[in-house]
Amino acid sequence: MKILVFSVDEEVRSILGPALTEHTVVYIDDIVSAKALAEHSDADAVSIFTTSEFKKAQIDALPKLKCISTRSTGVDHIDVAYAKEKGITVCNVPRYGAVTVAEFTFALMLTLSRRIFEAFHQVREEGSFKTASLEGFNLFGKTLGVVGTGSIGRNVVRIAKGFGLNVLMFDPRQDKSLESEQSKYVSFDELLAGSDIVTLHVPYTKENHYLLNKEAFAKIKRGAFVINTARGELIDTEALLDALKSGQVAGAGLDVLEEERVLKDEIELVKGIESMNELKILIRDHALIDMPRVVITPHIAFFSREAYHEILEVTASNITSFAAGKATNVVTS
Questions:
Q1: Which of 86, 95, 110, 235 has a CA that sits 20 to 30 A from residue 119's CA?
Q2: Has 299 been annotated as catalytic?
Q3: Catalytic residue among 201, 231, 266, 310
């Protein structure tokens, strides 16, 4: 097959190259353009990123096109319905960074529990090594509430046991293999009432919009901490602000914010300059930024070298599997 690969960097070349040696691969540094498509109108497949739109005009520009492999989970940038109508297979990367996000979850927990950011700020900005205001607390022996036990939540439970945390889990689809003397499934309300720290690991859907809302915060154990590395709209920001001000919630570690709904895909934050600027403005103006015991990071829980390589490896596998007649991670089926 002749494959066009857009938005190329060194990692793309180093991982896709060895996997696609049996094919003719054309690497294009820039996003999809009419000029590039016209120059390579005989292409059989394309590999794109969310910064490139691939709708009817782009699809029609490649009459031999059989496969679109996006290096992302989201497919909003592709006209999937039209591709299906034309008999073109669209593949994505359905999940990645399960270990990466789980590790970052604990980075946020430890930053809050040991007051690391406050200590760093005190030393750097004030030159003070006083410890009186920096008393933290141990994770060992506390109870962690894990909402969602999919690939990420499962790793959070595993790490939590290593820290000596007791774990309460909630998920409509229970994985009984995760239960032990140290961990058990409970109802959502039981998890809220019994957890010292609540961490979210579920996808955003209409059903769990504002999963943590005013009513949920009223049920949460007073003085609990909240961690969100999933999606911003799982938390009602105003309700969280009220809970923080009243002391019902002692602190929060947030890698995602409600207003991020304007952004399409995680990796776009790294590759898309426009989206990154939007996020900088969002964080700068956000009311939560000035709250004590609140740590906000710019949606980087997923972003490690290993996770990015995983995206590229799955993309390479998607293309080679399609070429072998055994397409994987298909969104047009």
A1: 235
A2: yes
A3: 231
Query: Residue 46 to residues 7, 78, 157, 253, 279: CA-CA distances in angstroms?
Result: 11, 12, 38, 38, 29
Q: Name the 3-class secondary structure at 180.
A: coil
What pLDDT sits at residue 271?
54
**pLDDT computed for residue 259 by the predictor:** 66
CA separation, residue 112 to residues 26, 117, 143, 247, 277 (Å): 47, 8, 15, 15, 27
**Does 3.50.50.60 match the CATH number of domain 2-96+306-323?**
no
Q: Which CATH architecture has domain 98-303?
A: 3-Layer(aba) Sandwich (3.40)
Rounded to two decimals, the pTM is 0.81
Listed residue (2, 6, 113) closest to 51, CA to CA = 6
Q: Is the dihedral of CA 218, 156, 253, 211 positive or negative?
A: negative
Say how far apart CA 230 and CA 105 lie, in whole Å.
10
| Catalytic residue selected from 154, 201, 233, 260 | 260
